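With this grant's support, we have paired protein sequences with backbone structure tokens. One protein thus recorded is set out beneath this paragraph:

_____
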Amino acid sequence: MLDLKRQQQVPDANEVAADVAGENINEWPLHLKHTTPLDTEAVRQMTTAHAHTKAFLEEAYRYITVGASPDPYPIPHLVQTSRTIKTTKMTKEDLQKAVSMGKFEPCLDEHGQPIAHFDNRTGMIPTGYYGVNVFTVPEMKGRRRLITEPHLNAVMDKADMPQVKYPTRLGRRQSLRYAKYMLQIDFEAFYDAIPLPAALRNKFVFRCGGSYYRLCTLPTGARWSVAVGQATTWVIVDIDTPVIIHTMIDNILIAAKEGQEEEFVRAVRQVLLRIRAANLLTSPDREELLRYTEEELLHLATQNNVFLGEEYMWNGTERVVRNSVKTVAKLMLSSTPDRQHSIRTFVSVVSLVCYAIHTTRLNPAKMFRLLRAYRYFYRQVS
């Protein structure tokens, strides 16, 4: 294991802060990517090595299926969220960009005209409609990420939603310790690629520029979106293979030991073909990877690989793990002396610190004071 201070090529936090000093964050470009819509029926038709994978998919897909039984959404006349919707601060340019890329669409009346006011003209949305908070958050790369947070989060019981469980970090590392070959595949703008049926879109309505709009794709801030995305990925990678496959929503890691070269290449190509059938775009590009020869794939898979904030390096015998350059850069930027934090950002930083320390195997007792402060702030908002 390597200590945080031994990382190479880490951006200087002061340089990063200087790059954004004096800039208007609201003028940073909105981070949206062109995607192709997920073929949910193709995913449903895929064969899987385990029956429970398909069962979880059907449970999660109730949230993007019209007429699902049981219906996961509340009965409109019995459970309602706020009937008023505040106008979002999204600029006209951002709105037009999102509409043109298929993320939003105008709410239309029976004549096909955009709705500026509902019939009651009080600013209240009718029964069956639900609001969604739409806002952006700045990222270190000098761009803004679009967040859509449904009001339904407040009235839907998390305990009733499909529960996603992952291997522990130690378990994951142990399974990858002797993996000479590792290849990561990421889905491009995964949530934006998962379409919402038209009949469900009125559950995600917001107001901007004097008119009402609604989401066309899976909301990024919905409690159930993780289950929908993870269920899709699990079905795609659930093939009959002896190699190791780990996933985290839109991240796929395929790994194999020395002597499993043939099985590794076969698994990679099989997963890529299933991704193509699902109509999802990837990074690296799925078509480019499919054109690789066996030798090219194996060479690519022996290089250093970053998965979930940890970098895995093959030293000829085993994979050595350290915090990724990106993780360290975030820590350095968040710990500058003049940095001010809200309770939310403070909690996020503490979580990141805990994650990074876990990688380096440092004694967690050293974090006692930091965790005590974390506990204090948690009590203030709980």
Notes: The radius of gyration is 23 Å. The chain has two domains: 26-321, 322-381. The longest strand covers residues 132-139. The chain has a mean pLDDT of 86.
